[in-house]
């Protein structure tokens, strides 16, 4: 029996596997996590000293109200970790969904919940929209008005995570249903984002496109809110569906890869539990290595392919089965579906 230790940061998975010959050194892996990556606005990857990156800090310290319309998987992935880390106070949050089953987990964290979206839109300074794209029109309250307090602030920020829905469509649909009294020049400001569910473990990606009307405070909020979720950066809106295909959907393409790697291991006699854990760790290691060293994947692949060795035989088998073409087609298909979703009324 061999002891396999897969170490991530200071936590270690330790389990026994028969006839395994894989060893990962804790020190080697930890060194990969000693640097942090951020992506600057010009989209160049920049390696930063961890100390020079803004530390996660308390969000919305002036008592602002934060609303979520559509408290499903994606908005939970973004907001729950912030509440659990104490960065966002549940007392400031109101969430809507159609069922109590979905709302229960928000309530357990201390958030107010409702099935009436008007309560969210009318009382929140910042609203995160997380319904399915085809549900947007239905989700916007037939008419929504504002509390006296919000009239006095004259503005609110609306953040969409909806695949395919353009900023123009999003804002238009919100404004069409907004009742504005003549006495207040009320303004909506909108930001379109594309996150992925890796946010729930702090390894997410978020891209965003703000409207020109967005103010410095909104950008600061984006930084504080999305910063702790992983990589985030601004992109031109016309590329948003392609980013959605790459990483909003792309994280979903990784699970069949992990499962396939595990299936191969099971076929070769490794138990399922061990093979799944190791397959996931292998994927994580590859991603972290590429980010830490900022190298082309071909270069890293060459590093592990010795002439006449076993890895190059596996790589050749992948190529015979069109692995790269499969991913190109997957990103293309998801991008096109995002474009279609944006056309739905
Ligand atoms: N999941 C991802 O990986 C991912 C990644 C990037 C972007 N997105 C975007 O995130 C959005 C949500 O996706 P999801 O995967 O989180 O879906 P989801 O889990 O189904 O969440 C959607 C939520 O919207 C609620 N809802 C439906 N109709 C509503 C209405 N009229 N008013 C208020 N709430 C309503 C649902 O409530 P009930 O549960 O009570 O029915 C549900 O909780 C989509 O627009 C998607 O494009 C998702």
Automatic annotation (TrEMBL):
Assigned keywords, A-Z: Amino-acid biosynthesis, NADP, Oxidoreductase, Proline biosynthesis
Annotated ranges, domain Pyrroline-5-carboxylate reductase catalytic N-terminal: 66-143
Domain of life of the native organism: Eukaryota
PROSITE patterns assigned: P5CR
Name of the top EC class for this enzyme: oxidoreductase
Keyword Oxidoreductase found: yes
Catalyzed reaction equations: L-proline + NADP(+) = (S)-1-pyrroline-5-carboxylate + NADPH + 2 H(+)
Keyword NADP part of the UniProt annotation: yes
InterPro entries according to UniProt: P5C_Rdtase_cat_N (IPR028939), P5CR-like_CS (IPR053790), P5CR_dimer (IPR029036), Pyrroline-COOH_reductase (IPR000304)
Pathway(s) of this molecule: Amino-acid biosynthesis; L-proline biosynthesis; L-proline from L-glutamate 5-semialdehyde: step 1/1
GO molecular function: pyrroline-5-carboxylate reductase activity
E.C. designation(s): 1.5.1.2
Domain Pyrroline-5-carboxylate reductase dimerisation: 237-341
GO BP, sorted A to Z: L-proline biosynthetic process
UniProt record similarity statement: Belongs to the pyrroline-5-carboxylate reductase family.
Protein name: Pyrroline-5-carboxylate reductase
Lineage: Eukaryota, Metazoa, Ecdysozoa, Arthropoda, Hexapoda
């Amino acid at each position: 029996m061999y002891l396999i230790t897969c170490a991530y940061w200071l936590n270690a998975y330790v389990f026994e596997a028969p006839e395994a010959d894989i060893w990962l050194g804790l020190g080697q892996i930890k060194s990969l996590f000693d640097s942090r990556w951020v992506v600057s606005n010009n989209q160049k990857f920049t390696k930063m000293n961890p100390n020079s990156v803004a530390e996660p800090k308390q969000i919305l310290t002036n008592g602002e109200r934060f609303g979520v319309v559509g408290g499903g998987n994606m908005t939970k992935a973004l907001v729950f970790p912030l509440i659990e880390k104490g960065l966002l106070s549940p007392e400031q949050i109101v969430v809507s969904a159609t069922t109590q089953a979905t709302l229960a987990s928000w309530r357990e964290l201390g958030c107010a919940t409702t099935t009436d979206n008007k309560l969210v839109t009318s009382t929140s300074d910042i609203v995160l929209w997380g319904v399915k794209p085809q549900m947007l029109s239905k989700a916007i309250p037939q008419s929504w008005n504002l509390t006296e307090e919000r009239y006095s602030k004259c503005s609110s920020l609306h953040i969409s995570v909806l695949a395919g829905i353009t900023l123009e469509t999003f804002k238009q649909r919100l404004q069409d249903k907004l009742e504005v009294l003549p006495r207040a020049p009320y303004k909506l400001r909108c930001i379109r984002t594309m996150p992925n569910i890796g946010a729930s473990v702090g390894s997410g990606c978020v891209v965003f496109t703000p409207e020109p009307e967005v103010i410095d405070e909104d950008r600061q909020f984006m930084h504080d809110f999305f910063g702790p979720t992983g990589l985030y950066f601004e992109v031109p809106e016309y590329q948003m569906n392609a980013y959605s295909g790459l990483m909003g959907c792309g994280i979903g393409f990784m699970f069949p890869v992990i499962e396939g790697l595990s299936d191969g291991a099971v076929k070769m006699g490794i138990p399922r539990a061990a093979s799944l854990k190791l397959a996931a760790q292998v994927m994580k290691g590859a991603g972290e290595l590429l980010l830490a060293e900022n190298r082309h994947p071909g270069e890293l692949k060459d590093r592990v392919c010795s002439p006449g060795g076993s890895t190059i035989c596996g790589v050749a088998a992948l190529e015979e089965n069109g692995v790269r073409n499969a991913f190109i087609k997957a990103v293309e298909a998801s991008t096109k579906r995002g474009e279609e979703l944006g056309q739905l009324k």
